[in-house]
Backbone:
């Protein structure tokens, strides 16, 4: 991401020894002046200390810095964990000379272990020294855990006479399941935006993107999406919001897709599309049930068009399912008609079509106009290997 920047923002990412092996594990995002902030967090009842801290702080509507560590989730760490999160914010505030309440914190990694605060303290000086306008790639690498590559988005939208920028970074590869998908994501823009409008736009964008992906159906304790708008560029008014929301939606869509593409051990990206449900809610439930089915995911890994597993998944979640109305296609090829094997089904062609990197499953329930799309992955032996050895 060299050469991409947003007015008034700097970022950095360094190694302070949390993960070892010289891997980057501490990141900082800093604005020259307080910015309007909006955020969304995990709905898991078990919330990490940084999530609890940020949920409290964003109520003030402003933030100036975000410090993030990887390798340790600071979750299930009790009162000490919350004290450590506050200390992380305090360290940034003291060095930057800003109010501590303007510093947000995020963590990701192993649950249940105390933060190595001495290493984080020693990392403050190099973290600030590394701040630069184009430090986003370093920051994106510093928030990775089992990710294999950094995830960065940069885009602009012409609004009036100005090009309004949006820059975002994210991490996520496993424990991906709403609400939200298990991940961290941070966006910055120099636009001036009212907090209520910013929160509404972020909520709508996340619902259509990060809340429509799953790798393994596991919900994290640390999910956080934050956006800072420092107002050093164009001031957006009501008529401008729809244009900026399109840009934000694009950023969320890009990063959410990158998360799925980097799913732990994944060899295939799978789009599950459900149409013809009574309503969008039913379509979404059906799509997620298929996308999270271990039997469906392993069949996809093996290029096996085992449509019976899809039918079984549907019947387990939709009370009003009418089996005889169901139609299913895989990669545009007919599989099920009227709830039974399609007479046009060709196993050889289906297996060949499923052999690529991307697989598309279309389910038409034949009941109404509700529809939803969910992105997922196949389930592979490598996923088991990664998570069996996660702490070792």
Residues:
């Amino acid at each position: 991401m060299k050469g991409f920047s947003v007015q008034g923002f700097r970022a950095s990412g360094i190694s302070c020894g949390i993960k070892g092996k010289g891997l980057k594990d501490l990141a900082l995002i800093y604005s020259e002046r307080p910015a309007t902030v909006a955020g969304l967090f995990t709905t898991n009842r078990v919330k990490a200390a940084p999530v609890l801290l940020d949920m409290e702080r964003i109520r003030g509507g402003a933030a100036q810095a975000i410090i993030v560590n990887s390798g340790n989730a600071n979750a299930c760490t009790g009162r000490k964990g919350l004290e450590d999160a506050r200390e992380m914010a305090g360290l940034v505030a003291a060095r930057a000379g800003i109010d501590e309440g303007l510093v947000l914190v995020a963590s990701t990694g192993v649950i249940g272990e105390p933060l190595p605060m001495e290493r984080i303290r020693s990392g403050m000086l190099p973290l600030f020294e590394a701040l630069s306008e184009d430090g986003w790639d370093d920051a994106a690498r510093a928030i990775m855990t089992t990710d294999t590559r950094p995830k960065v988005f940069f885009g602009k939208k012409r609004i009036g006479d100005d090009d309004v920028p949006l820059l975002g970074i994210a991490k996520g590869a496993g424990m991906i399941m709403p609400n939200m998908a298990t991940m961290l994501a941070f966006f910055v823009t120099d636009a001036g935006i009212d907090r209520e409008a910013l929160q509404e736009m972020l909520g709508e964008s996340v619902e259509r993107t990060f809340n429509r992906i799953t790798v393994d159906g596991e919900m994290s304790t640390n999910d956080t999406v934050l956006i800072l708008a420092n107002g050093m560029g164009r001031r957006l008014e009501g008529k401008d919001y729809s244009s900026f929301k399109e840009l934000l939606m694009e950023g969320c869509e890009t990063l959410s897709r990158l998360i799925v593409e980097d799913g732990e051990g994944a060899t295939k990206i799978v789009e599950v599309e459900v149409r013809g449900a009574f309503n969008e809610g039913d379509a979404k439930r059906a799509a997620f049930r298929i996308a999270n089915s271990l039997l469906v995911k392993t069949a996809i890994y093996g290029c096996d068009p085992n449509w019976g597993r899809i039918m079984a998944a549907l019947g387990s979640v939709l009370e009003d399912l009418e089996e005889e109305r169901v139609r299913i296609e895989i990669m545009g090829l007919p599989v099920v008609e009227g709830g039974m094997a399609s007479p046009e089904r060709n196993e050889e062609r289906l297996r060949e079509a499923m052999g690529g990197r991307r697989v598309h499953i279309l389910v038409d329930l034949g009941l109404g106009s509700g529809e939803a799309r969910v992105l997922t992955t196949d389930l592979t032996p490598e996923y088991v290997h990664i998570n069996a050895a996660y702490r070792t």
Summary: The chain has eleven helices and 14 strands.
